Amino acid sequence: MKLSTLLSISQLSLSADEKLNLAYSNPSSSDLAKAGAIAGKTQRMLSFLAQGRTRIVFYGMPSYPKQFYQLENPPFRLMYTQDLPTQTERMLLVCGTRYADGLGSQSSYELALEAGANDTIVVTSNSRGIDRCALYALKDSNKRAVVVCDCGLAVNRITNNALLSAFCLVSPYEPDDEALRFRCLSRNVLSTALAEVTLVVQAPLKSGALHCTTCALDLGRDVYVHSLGTRGGSLNAGSRSLAEMGCEIVDGYQQIAALRSWPVQARIQAGSLYRFGPSCYSLDHA
Description:
Elements: H1 3-10, H2 16-24, H3 29-35, H4 39-50, E1 55-58, E2 77-80, E3 91-95, H5 102-117, E4 121-124, H6 130-140, E5 145-148, H7 156-159, E6 168-171, H8 181-194, E7 197-200, H9 208-218, E8 222-226, H10 237-244, E9 248-250, H11 253-260, E10 266-276, E11 279-285
């Protein structure tokens, strides 16, 4: 089947299963136009993919993330860079406030550094704060992350951020789609579906990280709270409330690994290999 046909089908207001059934019927371009597909959008997506930096996968294909099949309405089309993770790989969602304080930033960095050293893929977003600090750690240590985006992969928010070029970016949106609130919420659903565990490092009451926890619990995923986020103050009010409701409190990656029965082969100790703010870290392989 032509890629242009699948891209046209992806525009239609149908469920993923309905789009897949329509694809099997091999509709004509005129039929798709009558159904609401816009030729200009299809051409724009084709042009973007022709640049060679982005790949695409559709619902029903072997490389489509299996975790998304349990969603009520999974995305029919995913654009991505680098390699998608496999279902057998360990994945940990790290999330939190965009306005992290120094301790929150440091804790996110240290946890992601150790997760990457132990071959756990960190899933996070392209937002600043806790999420971005985790990405800094993974870039510094040349480890993998999956960044689920709240916009298309051709917008300035993505292309002008050099940090993101080091990671697998995933977007269900058209290349030029800008970040909007409903897209941020949809991104949270996909992020929590990918990862088997969601960790909230630090979050106020109105943080989007709390939406991530709701999505994770709806999917039957475990939610942990970093002990740093249980301190007093409004910046920790959301993460503190999660702990009060019974979410497991963890001090770092090693405790998460123990709870999940994940192997721990590398640990963070004081040193000079990695520097973040006033603190230094190195990896000590036990």
